[in-house]
Predict the structure.
Amino acid sequence: MTTNLMDTVSWAAHRRAVVHTVKRRVPFVDPEAAASRGLATLCARIVADGAVDRPADIWCEAAVDAAFAMLREMILAASRQVRPATADDMPGADA
């Protein structure tokens, strides 16, 4: 597979669009990391299936899906954190 300057510029523009879409649709997640995960998913699909129609759309959808997965991971990790009880947490602590 070869690439030329136009392909590189075009894919750079797609990356900016993917990052922007992730940032807009899934707040609180690193959009760059989600875009990278989405690109990895796109590459895996190309390897498995060969050429795909509308790769930029597939990349964007995969990046948004990755962002939602990252958000779920963050929520699960936060729910597992145990915060030690303080005197303020005890009933009647203000008495």
Notes: The first helix runs from residue 5 to 25.
